[in-house]
Amino acid sequence: MNCQFCYTGRMSLRRNLTTAEIVEQAVFARRLLSNEVGSITNVVFMGMGEPLHNIENVIKAIDIMVHEQGLYFSPCKVTVSTSGLVPPLKRFLHESNCALAVSLNATTDEH
């Protein structure tokens, strides 16, 4: 999205993560932190890149994360944070029962 208030927005897009790469981040975090802080209960999709630009892999990863034979996170504990790309946003709302956060930030106070 090239958001100037986000440091990673200054980097160029190299590629989208695969479904496996997205899920592996949660698996790795669970393994790494389970002994130190207890179990990880929440997942938020945000940061380096707009999740809805990678909607196909994000939805597949969410399905694995909330499935009882997957990582078994509660759907109400999984949130996708977006700048609000409308067509994939509608798809997300139709295909997922996880939470959605829409960022209404801007680089200036102008309307």
In short:
This protein has three helices and three strands. It has 111 residues and is α/β, with parallel strands linked by helices. The chain has one domain (18-102).
What do you see in this structure?
The chain has 111 residues and is α/β, with parallel strands linked by helices. The chain has one domain. Helix content is 37%, strand content 11%. It has helices at 19-37, 55-66, 86-95; strands spanning 43-45, 78-82, 99-102. Strands 1-2-3 form a 3-stranded parallel beta sheet, covered by helices on one side. Helix 1 packs across helix 2 (55-66). The relative contact order is 0.17. The model has no long low-confidence stretch (mean pLDDT 87).
Q: Give the number of helices.
A: 3
Tell me the strand order in the biggest sheet: 1-2-3
Rg from C-alpha positions? Answer: 15 Å
Number of strands: 3
Strand residues, percent? 5-15%
Mean pLDDT: 87
Number of structural domains: 1
Helix content: 25-40%
> Structural class of the secondary structure composition?
alpha/beta
Stretches with pLDDT under 50, minimum 5 residues: none
- Coarse morphology: globular
Distance between termini?
Answer: 19 Å
Q: Largest sheet, described in full?
A: 3 strands, parallel
> Secondary-structure element sequence?
HEHEHE
Features:
111 residues; alpha/beta; three-stranded parallel β-sheet; 3 helices; 3 strands; 37% helix; iron-sulfur; rSAM
List the helices and strands and how they pair.
Elements: H1 19-37, E1 43-45, H2 55-66, E2 78-82, H3 86-95, E3 99-102
Parallel strand pairs: 1-2, 2-3
Helix pairs in contact: 1-2
